Structures are given as C-alpha cells and as structure tokens.
Fold these 2 entries.
Entry 1:
Amino acid sequence: MSAITTSTPMSEVLQLQRSAFHRDGPPSAALRRDRIDRFAHAVVSHSDDLVASISADFGHRPEITTLVSDVSTLAIEAELTRARVGAWMRPRHPWGRIGGAAGRLAGMRTQVQPSPLGVVGVMGIWNYPINLTAIPALSALAAGNRVMMKMSELIPNTSEVFANAMHDAFDVEELAVLTGDVTVSGEFASLDLDHLFFTGSARTGSAIMAAAAKNLTPVTLELGGKNPVVISEKTAADRSAMRRAAERVALSRIANAGQTCVSPDDVYVPELATRSFVQEVFNAWGRVVPDMFEENEVTTLINDAAYDRVVNLIEDAAAKGAQVIGSMRSDDDGEEALRAARILPPTVILGVTDEMEIAHEEVFGPVLAVHTYDDVDDVIDLLAEKPAPLVATWYGPHDPEFAAFVARTRSGSVSRNDFAVSQSLPGIPFGGVGRSGMGAYHGKAGFDTFSHLRAVVGSELPISLATLVTPTADTRLLKVVRQGIAGYTKVLERRRRR
Amino acid sequence: MSAITTSTPMSEVLQLQRSAFHRDGPPSAALRRDRIDRFAHAVVSHSDDLVASISADFGHRPEITTLVSDVSTLAIEAELTRARVGAWMRPRHPWGRIGGAAGRLAGMRTQVQPSPLGVVGVMGIWNYPINLTAIPALSALAAGNRVMMKMSELIPNTSEVFANAMHDAFDVEELAVLTGDVTVSGEFASLDLDHLFFTGSARTGSAIMAAAAKNLTPVTLELGGKNPVVISEKTAADRSAMRRAAERVALSRIANAGQTCVSPDDVYVPELATRSFVQEVFNAWGRVVPDMFEENEVTTLINDAAYDRVVNLIEDAAAKGAQVIGSMRSDDDGEEALRAARILPPTVILGVTDEMEIAHEEVFGPVLAVHTYDDVDDVIDLLAEKPAPLVATWYGPHDPEFAAFVARTRSGSVSRNDFAVSQSLPGIPFGGVGRSGMGAYHGKAGFDTFSHLRAVVGSELPISLATLVTPTADTRLLKVVRQGIAGYTKVLERRRRR
C-alpha cells in the first residue's frame, strides 16, 4: 500500500497521521473492525515467518512458544476487540440511562463520548515481540487512533517481517512501523505524540516518562518486577497440591528462558516443605527439558550480555553465601557449549539475602530464588515493603489468609493456583502499579487507555450556570446558598454523633 | 487531633502514611464514609472563615463566588461520593456477572478489585482553592488512599484556615496539609508518592511530570486552555438566542475575574452578527457590574504580577493593531484606583492575529477576544490545529454542524448553550486532553483515577496455563494451535472478500 516508512523521517510520519486524524475525525465502527481484521491478518498470515524470525533473533525459540504466546494471543485479542468495539465506542451515561433520560427531559443532554486521542506511539520490546507490541497497537487502532510503532532494536529480523506485513496492510497515515537502534528510540520518545505506550525496564520507563513530560504526552508504562510466589501452609501440607504448585512454578520460571515480565523470581515456601519443594521443581524441569542440547526444546537468552548478566547474578549470590543448585552437572566442555548457545540450565538459589544483587534485580533468566518462612504474616510484611510487582501469586485455597495476602500487598494483579491467570485471560485488565508500571490494557481497559472520555453536555434550560457565580445586587441566591451550607453542616454533625 | 505538619519534614509524613497504609490495608466502606464526612464537615463548618480568608488572599472576592464555586461544589461532591463509594469499591466483573459466574463454575474465579494506590499527593492551585484542591483529595480518600496536600503559596490565609480545619479532623497518618513556598512545591513533586495530582499551568505541569518520572509516580495533570466558544449561524440569526449566548459568554468571562481554567478566551461569531454580539456582551457586563468600585461586586486579580500580565497582553495586542474596547472610560485617576485595587474592567479585543501574545497565552483575566467568521468549517479547521482546550463551547442546536464540531475538534469536554455545563454537573468526568491535561476526576472518574484496577484470578483447573507455552515432545498441542491459526487466517480472508 505504501513505501516502508523507515526511510521517512518520523516527524513527517507524525504530521501525516495527525493531519489525517483531523481531516477524517473519529472512524466508524465498521472502519475500526476492518483495521482490526487487517492487523490480525497481517500477523496470522505471517505466522511461519514470525516463528522463524523470532527464533533467529533469539538464537532459538520453540515454535509453540511463538505460536501460543505471540500469534494466538494477538488473534484472541483481535477477535475480542472486534466483537466489542462497537459497544465500547458508544456514548456512556454518567447518570445511568434513567438519570440521563430524566436529565434530557429536564433540558440537559449529558453524554460521555469515548474519543480517540490522535496519534499513539507504541514502543515495543523483544521478549514477546508480537504480544507486547502488537496488542497495545491493536487497542489504540480500535479506539480510533493513528498508530506509530517502534520495534525493539534487539529483534531486527522480526521487526522486518512485522513491518513489511503491516505496511502491506496499512497506509502510513493509519499505521506506521519504525525500526532502528536506540537513537531512534530516543527520538521516538521525544515526539509530540498524543499518548506513548512503553513496555520495558523501570529504568528506561522513567527516562521515557521524562522525555514525554516535555510534550505533556500521557504515558502507559508496562514494567516488570520480582513477581513473588507464596506457597501457603495448606498447599505445602497437601502432597499433590504441593507437587502441582512446584510444577507450575518450575514451568513458569523457564518459559521463554525466564525472559518474561510476569515470571516468578522468588518463591516463599514453609520451612519444613522447602526440601521437597525444591525436589519437585527439579523433577518438573527434568520431565520437561530432559536434554538441554535438544535444540528445539528451549528458548535461548537474547544475547551474550543477557547471558553474562544472569550468570553474574548467580555468581554474586554464590560469592555472598547463597546455595546454588544447578539442574545439570556438566564438565567444562558442556558449560562452554551451553554458553555458546546461550542456554542457561534452570537453577535454584537458596539463602538469598538483601546484600545480593539478585535480591533486587529482575532476573530475566531461568533462576528461581527459594525462600523459607515460618509465619506467613512475615512474608506478607516483607512483600508489602518491597516494590510492587506486576503479579503476586498465591498457591492455596481462597481463604482468609489469601484475603490478607491480597489486602496487605500491592501488585499489578494476583494469581492464585496458577501462573499468569490474572494476566493472560482475555478481557482482564493487564498492568502494573508502583514500580511495575502505570496504566493498563487488554480488552476494554486497552480501549479506554487510548480513549479520552469526553463529556458532551448540552443545555436547553432558561437559566445559566454562569449566573450562579456572578455577584448581583439580588441577595436571594446568597441567602439560599448560606442556608443550604448551614443545613448540610447540621446533617454532618448529626451523622457524626450517631 | 495532631500537630500541624508544616513543621514535620514531608518525607517523614510520607513514611508515616505509607507505613499506616501497609499496616491497615484498604479501609472499609464505613471508614471511607466517615472520612468523607469529616472532610466535608471541616470545609462547610469553616465556610465563613474560608470566604474571609480567600477574599483576603485575592484582595477581594465576593462571598457568593466562594460559597457556590468552592464550598457548595465540595459539599455536593462529598455527598455524591459518600452515596456511591460502596458501589464503586465492589469487585468488578470483566466478563460480566454471567460470564464471571460461568467461569467460576468452570473453576476460574475472576475479579477486578479497585485497590487504593497508597499515598496520593495533591498540589493545589489558588484560583478555586477549595474546589480544585479539596475535591481531588476527597476522591483520593474515598478510593482508600492516604493523602498529602500541598496548598498554593499564593493563598497563605486560606491555606492556614484549611490546614487547621483538616488537622483538627484528621490524623496526619490519614491526611496531611502542607503549606509553604515554591521550594516546598518542588520538594513535594519530587516525593516518592504513589500518585501525584496537579492543577495549574502547562509549563509547570510539564516540570511536575518530569519530577514524577524519577520516581515512576503516575500523574494527573489538570491544565487549562483557550476554551473557544463558537456562536453558530443559527444562534446568530435568532435575536433572543443570540442575546442569551452573549450574556452567558460575558458572565463566564468575568466570573472570578476570568481567573478560571475553563473560562473562554476566544469567541467566534458570524461576521454579520459581530457588532450586535459585542454590544450584547457589554450590555450584560453593564447589567451585572454597573459599578466596578462597588467593592463587593467583583473578584480582584490575585496579585500585581497577574494584573500587569493581563494589561501587557492587552497592550501588546493594541500595539500590533487589534481594536481594544474597554467597558469603562475613565480618567487617569480612575485607572490608578483600579490598578491599585487590581480590578481590570471587562474588555473585548477585536482583530486578534497570530502575532499577538494573547493569541497563544491563557489570559486568566476578564478579556474576551472576539473573532469573526464566514464559514464555520474554517473555524473548525482552525480549532483542530490549535492545542486542545479544557472545554470547547458551542451555541446552537444539536444538529449536524454541532456534530461536526464535536467530531473534528479535540477538547477535554464540550458544552453546548451554556458555560461549563460539561464540567460542573456532578458525576461527569472532568479533565483535559493534549495540552489541557491528562487524567480525569469528579465522581467515579475521580475514584478510578486514585484506584488501581487489580485483577485477582484464581484457578481450580487441573491444567495449567504454564504448560501451554512449555515445549514438549508431545506435538499434539502444536498441531492444534497451527490448525487454529490457519483456520482463523481463512476466516479473516473470507471477511475481507465480503
């Protein structure tokens, strides 16, 4: 449909999109559905290319991971959005339908119209290149915006496949995909966009927000966190529940080689159950990845720097007294081969203390810190003091202990008895709080993030609100207002005496 | 209840509030209602003191303005919030009640819990010191947060009355009011708060957001704008509609001496009707403020700098060729007296061009720029290119022309046929977009702004989501996923052929 825009200066793309936005006004529901279909088709019809290019960019990534976590996730979101966008677009009634109708009879026509913001920027990330970049872009389109996407510089092959697919399906006025290095990202964050959506680290998120502040561009920041898991005493006491919990924690820790913003870094286990928990974790890993060198079984770490970073976290912990348990004993040759392939064997660390870097850094690798506890209240107190993670997970029944865990900790979401159920089910708001981010998306939350809820109110009344605040020689209004305030003061005093 | 906190370092107040927040967890509905009552009582029971102190801080401000715009507005918001907070707090069901119940039967318990953020900071402004500072604080309390308020340094008397009233009603752990100069404001914006709410200028808002970025503190920014008014041709052609429109524009321009973030700076009038429109504006001003020196009739400008700023805008426009029409001819002595009292006579400016400062600056004084037009489409195009204002106002029927105005311009809200109906009715979201701000409050919008919508999802299913993304020797899942994607691709292709 149009030339690839990576050659066009991005400020020109912005101008093109902004002019088109003003020229055309908010798109109809039919046009939005058409855009959603084109978007989804561009992704799913290139799923083989995406599987191959993501795998090439990572070093290796299993087909099932890309098809489920990236392609299918986007497809499900597209269908949900397509089915609901007509309803989400409709004017909302802050006084309810009945209140709104009554107001209208009385001469006040009151609506809140979800309105597109203009040109939305989406800064992508490499770990789930389609899921975390395409879903926000899709929501922004559905909300009637023009969209500029910046792909992560760590996935050049994927970016090219994705950009070509999108530019075949969209005019640059509607959607543009930019590629390029960190300089381009900096320039992108400094554009005078109408909203900037970013997924990545807290450090970069902070810089992005500061850049956006110059243009008063609102931001959504999807960051990460340590994503603690608590194994309740009840679960620890039930052998099959315990085994299931350990297996789910184990699998979630190695999915995408731990390069997942909702992946658990820390698990808290009742002291007596720790040994058997660790054993079950290794059993699960052994079942799932019996042979690391069977290439198609694991995702590799994204680059050498990432590999070295995780190894350094492990070595730092070991040097400071932690007990490191690797899943594989291998001779030096084996280690060399793993390092060359950027495959890190799943690892458990016991005895992590605050002095160790791993206690504070997001790991982004298949390394699980197992902590022991005596009293679950201590764990809750500890977590309450730490930065809020994207997700906190609890294994155990829906009981008062779980309620206390929910009430007294902060996190983007809470999952119980499984990995990521609070983030990956369709239609459920996904987003962090505190250090794990600001703003949410997925389903209606995404639509609302990229909409301005614009009140449109008309009056046919003979009296004006303006007269209420205008001083006048007529003191009747003043008397009425004074009486009202005095009466309300008495009401409040009666309430407080009760 | 506690010593005034202006002597306590603000970082200590933050620590106190944060510890209390973690210790107590989210407050019950009853406690929230009690806090709302205490808050409202602290304001309404001091309404005489507030009237006097605000008037002292301004120089003069009529009692009716403070009682209606500040005290009553807060009281109405408090009652609305009190009545609805129980409902707003309740868990929400992203799949609907029926979908949620079905999910639960199937083993998935899905809720979205509106959760308090922690410690919320509110930076106040002087022009409506209670309304614009107390309402966001009230919403933050209702959402279960602890609140730190920083009062504007331009209203020392008001700040003292308000702070004393609040500290009699609240423990510092619940709510603290800080006073002090711009240095204190800078320190406040740099606190590691869980949300920062600011009302003020775009320039300061940008600096506040940059400071908040360092701590990843989400911000709500309530800024301002030129708030254009369009008099449609139909209204201009109807003598009584025209008179009413002119009167409402005239009154809204001088309310609070124009020191109002939703006050109209610009009005666009059909060319043939311009003379009679200006005449009607002056007629309205003459009726309402026949004698400027009758002290209790007008609000004064907040300080000499503000007075000089507005006078400079007028003089700059005049020097560059605009026609300035003052509402009062007075000799030099009269002008001196007005300047000493900081009373600026209402003024109309015709022939404003882009070279004049007043075309770009928010006026914040009783000066109305009247522009003429031939074709309303040109006005819409012009407004679409300008920064989005807090409110855009249209005088005319609810017809396709109005619909085009709504669709093709951006603004925080749209009022039709009256001043501020889209901002001042209870329960309607209030907030800007683009240069006029980000985020909204009032009613449920305020509650949601200060809440994190936290998904809490539990699973009792025997299968885990984690297994879906884990590579396995069993390729059945991979086959199913591949087939699903291929099938969906065909569905999309069929849709596009239709």
Entry 2:
Amino acid sequence: MMMWRVPELLPFLALGLFLGHVAADPDMLQDVCVADLSSAVKVNGFPCKVAFNASDFSTDVIAKPGPTNNTMGSLVTAANVLKVPGLNTLGVSLSRIDYAPGGLNPPHTHPRATEIVFILEGELEVGFISTANVLVSKTIKQGEVFVFPRGLVHFQKNNGNVPAAIIAAFNSQLPGTQSIPATLFACTPAVPDNVLTKAFQIGTKEVEKIKSRLAPKK
Amino acid sequence: MMMWRVPELLPFLALGLFLGHVAADPDMLQDVCVADLSSAVKVNGFPCKVAFNASDFSTDVIAKPGPTNNTMGSLVTAANVLKVPGLNTLGVSLSRIDYAPGGLNPPHTHPRATEIVFILEGELEVGFISTANVLVSKTIKQGEVFVFPRGLVHFQKNNGNVPAAIIAAFNSQLPGTQSIPATLFACTPAVPDNVLTKAFQIGTKEVEKIKSRLAPKK
Amino acid sequence: MMMWRVPELLPFLALGLFLGHVAADPDMLQDVCVADLSSAVKVNGFPCKVAFNASDFSTDVIAKPGPTNNTMGSLVTAANVLKVPGLNTLGVSLSRIDYAPGGLNPPHTHPRATEIVFILEGELEVGFISTANVLVSKTIKQGEVFVFPRGLVHFQKNNGNVPAAIIAAFNSQLPGTQSIPATLFACTPAVPDNVLTKAFQIGTKEVEKIKSRLAPKK
Amino acid sequence: MMMWRVPELLPFLALGLFLGHVAADPDMLQDVCVADLSSAVKVNGFPCKVAFNASDFSTDVIAKPGPTNNTMGSLVTAANVLKVPGLNTLGVSLSRIDYAPGGLNPPHTHPRATEIVFILEGELEVGFISTANVLVSKTIKQGEVFVFPRGLVHFQKNNGNVPAAIIAAFNSQLPGTQSIPATLFACTPAVPDNVLTKAFQIGTKEVEKIKSRLAPKK
Amino acid sequence: MMMWRVPELLPFLALGLFLGHVAADPDMLQDVCVADLSSAVKVNGFPCKVAFNASDFSTDVIAKPGPTNNTMGSLVTAANVLKVPGLNTLGVSLSRIDYAPGGLNPPHTHPRATEIVFILEGELEVGFISTANVLVSKTIKQGEVFVFPRGLVHFQKNNGNVPAAIIAAFNSQLPGTQSIPATLFACTPAVPDNVLTKAFQIGTKEVEKIKSRLAPKK
Amino acid sequence: MMMWRVPELLPFLALGLFLGHVAADPDMLQDVCVADLSSAVKVNGFPCKVAFNASDFSTDVIAKPGPTNNTMGSLVTAANVLKVPGLNTLGVSLSRIDYAPGGLNPPHTHPRATEIVFILEGELEVGFISTANVLVSKTIKQGEVFVFPRGLVHFQKNNGNVPAAIIAAFNSQLPGTQSIPATLFACTPAVPDNVLTKAFQIGTKEVEKIKSRLAPKK
C-alpha cells in the first residue's frame, strides 16, 4: 500500500509517548472530534477528547419508551451530542418521542435543524406552518415518514386510543427546542404580561391562568 | 495590468454577439446573481437576471415610517431580496420597524437569520428567550444596538409615549418571520382546536376568542 | 448602464395573469423548495415545484421490510429526496435497511453525509474505519444507536439467527452510497485488471473471479 | 408542557453547583456562544464565556457621530464582536460611518462580508467595482439602501455641503476592512517600491510621496 | 390544499420529448453537476448538463507557458469552471501564472477564495497584507509552497533574471480577481477623479497619468 | 486614511504589553488562525497561535520527489495544515505524488475534499467511479489537469516507462485519505474475515493472503 515518509510519523510517535497511556491516534481527531463534555474551554459545539472508543458513538437512551403521564401526555428523549459525544461536529442526532393516547407534542421550533420522523407505532396527526401562515398537515401511521422544515413551528398529536412513538432525526448535533407555550408562558424571568395580553389579545387574568398551568412542576 | 489570452475571451465575445444588445458582462454573474424575481424556473433563492443596473442594489421602501394604526401598533417594512434583487445569494437584508406608543412587535422567530437592530428613535423593551427558557431582555434607546440570535423567539415593545423606530439587519436575503400568535391562531387551514387547548391549557371558547381577534382583516 | 429590457418583463406579466386564483403563496418557496423531479433544468439539488401539498413531505416506502434473498443478504430502501420531494434543500433523509440472518451491508461510504442508525429489531456488528486505519466497532441491539462519521468506510453485519432492521438517518437529502466491492469490481466500464491486481496484491484470475461473482444480476 | 426525565437534568444541576455563583444556564451556550474576548485559548472566532447577561448583546458605541476632522473626512465606528461579544458565532454586525462635507470612505474591501447600508442623513455617491472592472454606482440619500457584494472594492463619497451618516450591516461578526490606499502604501513592513511603481506605472518619487501622506499619524 | 396544475407541466413534458435519446444517468448528477455553460437559465454557479464525459473534468490550457510580453510582465491562465465544466459545485480550481524576469502579478484580491501556490520554476517574492496592515512576505523558490488567505490583498514579483512560473490552487470554482490598479484606474465607467485624488492624496494630473498607462490596450 | 477612535485601540495596546515580546497583531487572528499544532486544547481543526510569521504559510516538503521503491510504486507527500500551520481554517492544501514506472496510487477516497491534479511530468491513467458505478477515466499527460469529485473512489496509474509526478490540490486543510485496500485489509483491529469474504465473495484463505501482503512493514 502507500508508504509514508518516516519523518512525518515522528511527531505522532512523540506525541504518543508524551500522552502516556492515551490509546487513541491523534490523527483520528481529523475524522471525528469526540466531544469533551466537561472541558473548561467552551467553544461553538465542544472541544475534542484526546482518547475515545466505540461507546462514544453509541447510546441506549432511546431504546425504551419513557413515561408519558404528564400534562402534555408526551415525552421527548434525546440522543444528541450530550448523550453521544461522538456526534460532535458531525451534524446529526436522533430523538425518540412517546405519546400517550391523546398526547400532544405542542407547537415548537428547532432553531438549528430540519426534522424527519419515522413512526415506530401508532398514528399521529402532524403539521407545520409556513411563514406565509399556511398549515401543511397529514395523518401518518406506523412506518410512514414526515418532514418538518428547518425553524418552522410544528406539532404532533396522538388522536388514537393506543400509544404512539416516533424516531426523529435532525441535521444538527444539538437542534434545540422552543416549545412555544412554555417559551412564552413559563420562562424565567417571565415575559411581561403586557406583551402577552397584546400579542394574544387576551386579558391579564387569562395570561396568569396559562402561566400557572404551564409552570414547571416543583 | 494582467493580460488575458485572447482565446479565453472568445466565448464571451461570441456570447455577446448572440445576446445582441445585452450590455451586462456575463462574467459579472459570478460576483453577483441579481434575482430574476419573475423567472418561471424556481430554485433555492432565485435564478439570476442577465441584465441589471445599480437600481437593483438599492431601494427607498424603508425611507419613511409606515402606518402603525393596527391591532399591534407596529409595522414591519422589509428591504429584502423581493425589494432589492441584487441581494440574491449575498446573505443579508434590512427591515424598518415602526412602533406607535404602546406598540408591540409580538413574539416571533426568523427561521433563517440572526437579527441585529439599531434604534432610530424612541425607546424599546426588547428580549429573546433561550431554548433553556431563559428570558434575556433590556430597555434600549436611540442609537443603541441589540442582537436576537438565530431562530430564537423574541419581541420588541414600545412602553414610551412617543413613536419608536428601528433598522433591523439580518444575515439572510429573506429571513422569514413566524409571528407566534398569528402562526398558531390565524393560519389557513386552522390549527385544530384540540392542539391549542392542550398546548395552552385553555378552553375551546378561549381558543376561538383568540382566533377571532387575530383573524386577518378583510 | 444596463437597463431592463421590456420583452424580459412580458413573461412575468403574463404569468401573473395566468396564475390568477392560484392558492399557493410563492413566499412559501423560501421556507421550502419542493423538488420538481422532472424539471428539464438541472441544478445542484433540484429546482422547486410551484404547487405542492403535504404528500410531498411524506412517504411509506420504508414502512415494510424489503426482500433480503440476495447475495449479500441485505436490502437498503431509501426515503431520500427522490421519494420525498419536500426534502429538497433541507439537508436530511432516511433509509431502512433489512438484514437476513448472516446478512451483510458490505463496506461502503456515503460521500456526502454522516449516518446515525437506530436498531428496529435484531442485533448487528457495526464498525467504521478511520483514515488512520483504526477500526471502531461494536455490537448493538434493538433500540441502540450508532454513528458513522461523514465519508468513512463502514459496514453492518447480522451475526444472529433472526432478521435485523435499522432506520438510518443522514444529514443530506441524497447522501449517495459507494459500496466498495461493487464500486471496484462491478462498475461500467470496468476498473482495469492491473489496477486491481496491484491494489489488492492478487492475480488476474482472482480479480476476474470476484468480478464475475459481483456482476449485476441480469 | 413537555417533561424531561430527571436523570438528564442531573449533570446540569451538578454543574450549576460546581460553578458556584455563575448565573447563566450552560445549556444556553448552545443557542449562543458569547465571546470570551480575553481567553488565553484562541480559536476561529472566540471561545465562549460561561456567564453572560443582556449587556453582552447590546452596545451604545455607534449612538453618536464620531469626529471626522481627519485626512479622509470620515470615520468608521464598529459595533462588531469586539464590542458586542454576544455576536460571536452569529454571523452579523453593524458599523456607523460619519462623513464630513467632502468626506470619503476610500476604496476598500471586506474580505469576509457583504455590506448593506441605510443612509441616516445626508447624501452619498456610492459604488462598487466588479471583477470584470465594471463600476456600479449611484447617488443615494436619506432613508435609501445600497448593497456592496462580498469582497468587492467599493467606496462612499459625500459630495454635499452637509455631514452624512450611515448604518452599515455585515453578514460577519468581524468583517475586516482593507482600505486600499493604506493597505498598499502604509503597511508595515512596507510593500517594496518596485512592486508599487510597476503596479501603478508611476515613479519611485511618486510612491514615496503617497506613502508619506498616508503614513499613520504619530 | 395545493395541487399540481396541468398547464404548468406542459412545458416540461414538451422539453422531455425534445431531449429524447439523452443517455446519461441522472443519478450521477448528484455526485457531480457538470456546468452547462451555455444554459439560458442563470443560477449561482451553473445549471448542470444532462450528458457529460471524462473530458469535462480535464483541460490542457495550463500545460504551456503563456506570453509575458505585456506591461506587467506576467500572465494568468485559468483552469476554472469556464474551462473545466466538471468543476461546477465542487469548490476548487487551478491557475498557471508565468512571469518574465522582473515580471509582477500586481496587488490583487480573490473575493471568493484562499490561494495556495507551488513554484514550478524560478524564484518569487510573495506577500499578503492583513487587515491590520501587516505585510507577511517571503522569497520562495522552485518546489516551495505559499498561502494567500481568503480575500486579502497579495502580490508576486519575479526579481530574478530568469522566467518563473507557478501553479495556483483556489478553493472556489471561479475565485474571481480584482487587480487593484486596474480595478481603480481602468474600470468602466471610471471611478471619479475626486475619489482617487483624495484616496491616494495625489493630484488629478497624476490620476489621469495612471489611468492612461493602465487603460486596456485597443 | 480612515481614522479609529483611540479608545478602541486601547485593549490591543494593553494586550500587546501583556503579551510581552509577541510580535503579531492579535487583530490578525481574524484574517488567519495559524494552527497551534501542539495546543493541549483540541478543537475541530486547530486552535490559533498568538504569534506567527511568514514561514507558517510556507513549506518545502513537496519540493523534491520522494522514494517510490515500495509495494505500490508510489508515494504521497502532503503539504497540509500539519506542515503549513497557516492553512488552518483556510480550506485548502496541496500534495505531491510520485510514481515509479508501473506505480499505482490505489483506489482511495478523500472524505473531506474534492481533488484537482496538475501533471508535473510523465503520463497517468486516472479515473473516478460515481455512486451509480460508472467509471470516468482518461489518460492525461504533462501539463494536463483532472478532477476527482468530493468523496468518490479514484485512482492514478503510471502505465509508462518513466516516472510520473503530480501536484494535487484539495479544498480542505486536511482532506484525509482512505486507501481502500489498506482500509479494509490492513486496519487495526482487523475487519472480521466473515465481513470480507462475504463482501468480496472470496474465501478466508484469500482474505488472509491479501491481509498478509498489505500488512504494514515492520
């Protein structure tokens, strides 16, 4: 096969000795940059770990359904760079979303990604709204696929009598989520009431009621 | 100066003859791609016009304040690629936003851009909410600058007694806007009531009331 | 100075009249650019259709397992932009891969994407090789996730006695696949024998044997 | 609203305790990466600060006109990432440029950005030159907008009797500026005279004269 | 719901008939997008040809030195997308530059690319100037390599007694060149004299002299 | 030329004093980010050095032919970011490849770059294979150019009686190489035999023979 001039290898050998028991080849950092999630240095994304192994590219956090006995009747479990450090710089991640019967993943956006979903089980009413305020929606069932374009408000609702579950893929290692109701009515500090009353054309009392119902559980 | 081999110029000369009286140098399309806004061919962004002039890079649509006597007491006027075709492929645009006293630019997102604003006159309470549901807000006055990070929900409110106005710059030729109240309560077809009642924990009657108040004016 | 030529404007005026009552908002093309798969104009990706609906963002082509009674004992079914035109410009797609017991998805690359997989059923030995010739491999089972970094050679092997299946997500609307054995031994025209004999340090007879076994089935 | 499994929150809680008095949510670093301008680690752009607040997204440095009693009769004041650390990784910035009557912002390039300007007051002759050596120029007045495409040489000249001022927006957090006369005739070390004499077809004496007039003021 | 309208499909059907016997595999357009240099549709870059062959990825235009008996004593010959249509969308190109003894490639920028050069023969003084007005320069000889960062002003000068030649590589299919002297003193229409006199602090007479010497040869 | 307000310069002056004898202007880090190859912090690419000079943008490692008396009869010598630290973040690099008569650069991919080559001497049979398994090949000789699209398998073979050499340019500072035979048959740990026998439809004995012949020389 191709041969490499020995002097080019020397720095790597030297580095290997210097790093002592580090197993990984530093050259590999150019193919991947496994997140050093606890680095004191913060950058856009994460700095890279020097040593890593196959576990850094794998997880079982989305193997099982999560509990959906909450207000919305749904649960998002993410397999993003925070769980799969090997995803750092690679621009992709997964989530699993479980829905109780009647469960809703409320209108939300992902500021940094398009989402494509595959229905593992059950049936969902899904939709996104364009910037021209056109709703594009459809009912999809097990094995079907649907796309939510980057940054647009979208939702999924389980109108069936049985649980539903999806695998969602994103073209970002950490797509971020802004669940609209919680973003506006449950953030800290609170959005001023006079912004919300004017925006939604409702009274202060109604704003306070929504805020109390959406407040994070203690 | 640098000289070019004649054979390299020949195709351009030939093209010039073929196009007849078209004045523009096709080489220039590589520096810019002035939007052909009415092309029958649709691509990501716009195809390029063959002929253009300095007017394609200019506009006066944001020179004057717009009327703010509407429900929200604010008006956005855009100088994006639809008004300045020369912006096509260049990744930047401006808007002017005017606010009546008490006026609000309601919570909204730009799916494709970060926004940076400069206050032309007046004083505004501005804020954005992170995906960790933290509100970052500030009151800024004439001559001050504020940034709304890409994709995050944000708003501006004129709490003063005089009009306010800003110039907003975006790193997109067409950043898009999703005004949250209209996106959820005034789109076509409508978001199902059972999505909105569950999301905001309110009754159908309240949903209908918001929908009626936010419905587009006939 | 370059000037608008009137004849260039005529088609746009005509088009405007012709469109008349068309419901779709051309503004929406800026949120999405649904692929016009049969356009005579070819661009990087695809031109956009003028009219589209929710079906353009959905497919059921990966709902069911595909037949795996082939030489490799595996089958890839893609839900990419060619099947889901709404994916155009959005940078993501899915595939389903089915494996018979003993089935192999042979070593291959995706020139344009990182891949992240979720095991629907069964158990697979998976691995990728870095540019430093380090194999990173692991056995993963139902519900687990694994990542194959952009452009690197990787494979999946079903060493179990039951079928296996995965959902694979890519950060490209059309990631492309180069299955190494077919790329080198079954392309048209053929890679010269003296390239393959020297590359793999085998005889012409062995090269010919591999070529005959990997030749596309008539 | 959506609920999150408690174990996922634990690392953040732990991190919060460990960081002691740090106010900001580390999750927020994924929405923004506020520049740590004094970090010892240098990267493309800047590393991120752990704690930040609304002031990091704001500045008043361009609120007032700057002094224009200099050789060129103009002054650029930047509101880029060095003044607004929250701009880091967000790809946008502003400048204010003031012009005395007769003032000139001499021909220059921004290696990393397109520029779009809004005239605050006065009137300017503006222009850019394409790589085909075509000048695209126009006189614009208060409230008008003009675009200077990425990387191309451009200038603004106040031919009026009153001061002028603009707000310039860039699609880069730090667009950089190469003012052509200073770049060529006032850099350190100096560009060799025989490069400048041949380039501009002038004598050494003329080169020296330009150099002396453009030399930075002590 | 938006639906396909038949009249819009007609032109495509017609065109499909016209193309008829086109042999090339459309799947391949996803690996490459060979420029259709004569397409009536203009886009950012070029639309793709339907049929292509190996010649589209090759050229011999930079095989031989070009004539350097011109004012600057140098000649640039480009092997960019205009000569190698296969380069379209691939983000790279080459040029060959020949220098007579004493020849100069005058200070210039490439708005869209970094440049890396390899010296084929001879010796050159090369340099670039940073936005902080720092000159980074070096004399390099046969076999040596030098880098000119994206967008920055740079030059090469042959101070030797023998010809020199380089191969220059760019990370753009069409990097564009703004040769500073010609950009400012030989564009059409001309940059106003009062811009140039103030910028370079010289008299109108000197501006006119430079303009006459740099004017394109008839 | 343009003047800057003194307070803006103060932080830089202060930083200069603090850094002591460091010569480079920290502002320059925004034009370039010269790789600090030995930094303890690892990021995507490399952190930047604070001080640098013209040597960081130059190398002579590809000035001379390298020895080609190895199994493949070819040698790749890279002038990438590991040899030219100034290339960091600039997206381009060069390699020199030498071929003995009969020498082969075996089928390989660059996961992160398109390659364009210029033939310094000799004649080569070159080719790439598309994802549709179409071989695009050509014999090119001294002075000719050929392109290998991003990520696709390609090779070069010297069928002549004299040595050949090329300069290869990549649009990546570190394109990475996966030489297919070594990737599959000489990695560590080894790819399981049952993957290779099924993939290439050969016996274990043949797999072992290839592995032994391609094993790295001790």
